[in-house]
Structure formats: structure tokens, C-alpha cells
Amino acid sequence: MKFIWTVSVLSWASTGRAVELEVGTCCARLHQELGTKISFLGQPAYNATENSYWSLQEAGLKPGCILRPSVPQDVSRAVSIIAAIDGCNFAIKGQGHAPAAGFANIDGGVTIDMTGLNTTSLSPDRSVLSVGAGASWLQVYQYLDPFNVSVAGGRNGLVGVGGLTLGGGISHFSPRVGWACDNVVNFEVQVSFHWQFHGINADSKKVVLADGTLTNVNETWRSDLYRALKGGANNFGVVTRFDLGTLSQGNLSVSSFVNDISQRRPVLQAFTDIVSSPNFDVYASLVVGFLYNSSSKAWVISNSAVYTRPVLHPPVFAELAAVPSISNSSRIMSLVSLANEAPTPPLNWLFATATFQPSAEFMLEIFDILNSTLYSFNPQGGLVWDIAFEPLPSGMLSHATKTGGNVLGVQPEEGNSYIMLLSALWPDSASNLVVEKVSQQALFTIESRAKAKGLLRKFQYLNYAAWYQTPLASYGADNFEFLKRVSSKYDPFALFQNRVPGGFKLAKEGQL
């Protein structure tokens, strides 16, 4: 069967025809090698991938073709073909949660949709879960539920295993076991080039073969790459499988509190008291959020308080629960039920983040900054702002050393802190630039005030960062230089720096 496809790239004014030919050649080669695993514009498989993105920004990009691998070897074959054709760029997609355009999709290149790699299996002693990189966390929790074990994974079950873990990963279990990435005992990863020695030639020079390959990476084998992948995102290769350490887990206690915005002082004081406690309760998982609807000009406070033991009304949340509320509910439930959230409708999204030392007074100032910046801004169709605050306890950070370390750069001796996620959802794509500008203005003001008060932490959580932020550089100079060395070693021709343009790139952040 002969396939005809159309390539459309918005930014090819000067070199469009040449790049179009290269992408066409690349897609033709991939189709020849991988058959119906490659789909083209207008075909059902292509449309299914395009319709699966969380943000309209990502869904609006149109790849020249899409690969949906069913086994890891499909990824290996595809990367080898792509690498051999100059001008053929590609993107790597899991569940498509990242909102920024190009982070998991591409215009005119090749998108590798990993969601077919979702097989899960548990070791005989139930201590290690092996899961394909394209799985969702809900798939993982549904598989593990009968065994009374779990893993440190995403709180929203529709988020993907791959993206969350490679960016660090905050879990309900993180205070107890660390970041999601700290619980990876092995990665199966497609690296760009695997250097193998093949003896010594007549001139007494070592002969090597450069060959893309699937390899296992762990604490004893390629330990430098193992550490780099724990927070280093898509800078080193395509991870096809994660082997995750499990933990014993039954039902959870889940409380939800909704407060009028007039109660922000006692709510933020309760949050600060929990966050700043030197004896942070490792079973506590808390998100406190300001929600603002630009159409109704109404603020509300929403709190999700999860306790990872089946204990109703745990003492750690007592101060928060005592604040007068619009609604207040608590129940015991399974992780599967909690994580099975309804999908959001297709909308434009943005994320931005910052990390702070605990201070209830400064959190009140954050609200004042947000209110003064956002209150009069109401684009066509309206939008919803969601500003979430999440604890980052020092005890959580100590787990990194148990499995070879990570590159996130936050240390237990820095003390407890909290992460802010500033996000927005809106329907009208014509408002994208102005919404982003307003969000940047609010974030800049908040960070400036925090820095002046000595409350701003350098760390930017990659999974919450805006495209214009520099989370990799925020890990600190030593970690950033380490990441660059690992990139040079395992990706000597910079395939994942130059040919995978989406996401946070070492090469780009190193120039800023």
C-alpha cells in the first residue's frame, strides 16, 4: 500500500523545502522498517495520538509522522534511522501531560508515542515493579492494587510514568521514600551511541563501533547515567522501561477542605506549621491551592490532605481541619480510587514554579501579589488560575543517597521548604501570549519579593517549570556540569540536545 502524507511546519520559511524532504525521507524509511507502527496525517492512529495531549498547545503541532512502538526494539530501530538522516528531528511522548508546545510533540518531525509500551510485571518477591515507560500511573496502581503494594508515583493517575519520573516526581509517598526517581532501581534506555571496543588495529589504536543500543542502567552498571536520569529529563536517551522499588501499602485517608478566601490567614498558618515542623509526618501528603475564576472574579481555597495510612482525621491535619470551611469531607479509600481523576477537557495550559522557605506572612503576600496582578485580567472566554503549594520536607530529600543519588541539588541540610505551582487553564488560543505575559509578571514579582526577604530557594521543580525557566541549571553548578559530562559521554554527537528540541535542554540552559 502506498501512503501519501503532508508535512506542515510553521517556521520553515528559509529552509522549508529541504527540511520537508528530509522529514519525508525519514518518515518513508521508518514506514519501510516499522510498517503500520508509523502513521500519517489523517490516519486513525495519528489522530488518536494528537487527540491525547492535555494541552491545546501540544495538540496543535503536526508531526510528519508518528511512531507508536509496541516493543522497546521498535524505539531502538527508529532512533538509529532518525539519527542517520540530517534534519530529521523528533519528540518523545508519554501520556502528554507537559503543557508547553514542543515538549512532547513536534511540528514536521517524528513523534514517538510511547503509550504502547505499558506492560507491567511484579518480581516474585513483590519488591520490584517493571513498567513500560508509556504507562499511566493509574495503570500501575490498578495492576498493583491486589498485591497490597505500591510505588512512589504520580498523584493524578492519568499522568505518565516516564515524564514524571525523569523530572524527579512528587508522590503521596515522597515524604516516606523520596522522589519517584529515587525509587528507580534500574532504567532500560535507548542511548544514542554505545561505544564498544573491538580490539587494537595495526597502528595500536583502539577500534570502536558507534551503535545505538538498548542498555540497562543502574547503581552498578553505568552508574553515572543512572544518576543523571534521575532529574535529567530527556537529555540522554529514550527510557523504555522503569524498574521501581515497591512499598507495602493499603488504603489511604483522604480529606478535602474548601475554604472561603477570607480564611486564607489561618489556612496558610496551618500549612506553614505542617511544612516547618522538624518532625514532619512522613505519612502526610498535602496540597493547598488558591483557585481564581476570571469570569466570576471569585477566589476560593481548596485543600487536598492525604494520609497514607487508613487513619481518619490524623492529628497532622487537625489545625487545617479546624479552619471554618465551605465543605469538609474525610474518608478511607484505595489509591486506585483516589488517582482515578476525570480527564480535563482540551484547553490551553501553562505551568510555572518556584520554591520557598516556610513563612505564613510571605504566603499572604503571595496572595496579594496574585490578586493585584490577576484580578482585572479577563481574556475572551475567561480562565482559571490554580496556585498550589506543596511541602518539600528535608526528610524526603535524604532518600536520594540510598540509590546512588540524584541530580536535583536539594539537600536535607537546607531544611524544610515548599514548592509553588502557578498554573492556568483557558479556552481561547488567541490569548496565549497575553496569559503567559501576565503569569510571568506575577511570578517575577513573587520571586523578587522572596529573594529580598531571603526566602527564595534556587530549586525549580522541572515537572512544574515554565518553558522559559531553567530547572536544570537550578540544580547547582556541580550537578549541571555533571549532566553535561554524562551527555557528552553517552550522546557524543548531541542527538538528544539538537534533534530532540523539546523539553529542557542542557545545551540551551548552558548558554543562558
TrEMBL record:
PROSITE patterns: FAD_PCMH. The keyword Plastid does not apply. Pfam families: FAD_binding_4. Residues 59-249 form the FAD-binding PCMH-type domain. The keyword Flavoprotein applies. InterPro entries: FAD-bd_PCMH, FAD-bd_PCMH-like_sf, FAD-bd_PCMH_sub2, FAD-linked_Oxidoreductase, Oxid_FAD_bind_N. GO terms for molecular function: FAD binding; oxidoreductase activity. Keywords: FAD, Flavoprotein, Oxidoreductase, Signal. Residues 1-18 form the signal peptide. Belongs to the oxygen-dependent FAD-linked oxidoreductase family. This is FAD-binding domain-containing protein. It comes from Coniochaeta ligniaria NRRL 30616. The lineage of its organism: Eukaryota, Fungi, Dikarya, Ascomycota, Pezizomycotina.
